[in-house]
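Q: Here's a chain of 182 amino acids. Please give me its 3D structure as tokens.
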Amino acid sequence: MSALRPILPRKRPLWLLILSLMLVFGFYQEKAKIQLNHYMQVLQENPHLNAMSPEMRSDWWHDNPQPQRIHYYIIQGTWSVFHGLNLRQLYGLKWGVSVVILLTFFVLDGLFLKTTGHIDRWPWLVVIYGLAGSIMAVFIALVPGKSGYGVAHEFMSFLQSPLPSLFIVLVPSLIERMRSKN
């Protein structure tokens, strides 16, 4: 019976730092996307805001607060950087930020695999991202409205979390341990 490598090495706990970084980054990126989506929703509901200058929009937001509860978080205001952007620019910002966040999580997933000693499983990371990306693209392209977007959003949320790298580390390691006992 060959020695099994540790699932999560205790002698090199750098993986804990990477996992913590993923969780903190995940919280703040979600907060940023919530702020951006809320601002876009308010612009869509109040089209007259599009014609206002950034200063006038800022004054309008100050005079007309738009609080909104999102799960455990209540949006009280907005970020001033949004006031200078029109709806089209905000959509571009939203998708650009989503791509940057996705790439950042891909790198963090890779670092997690490296720091846990499981970098040899990185092809599975590519497979998971490829499959999830394909499913997202299919639902956005073929299912109109909020339903398609909702499914794509759930897959994006999965990728923007520690779950892909945790699955890649834990599932094969636990299967190896089950096989070694038989």
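Q: Can you summarize the key feature?
A: The beta strands are 68-70, 73-75.
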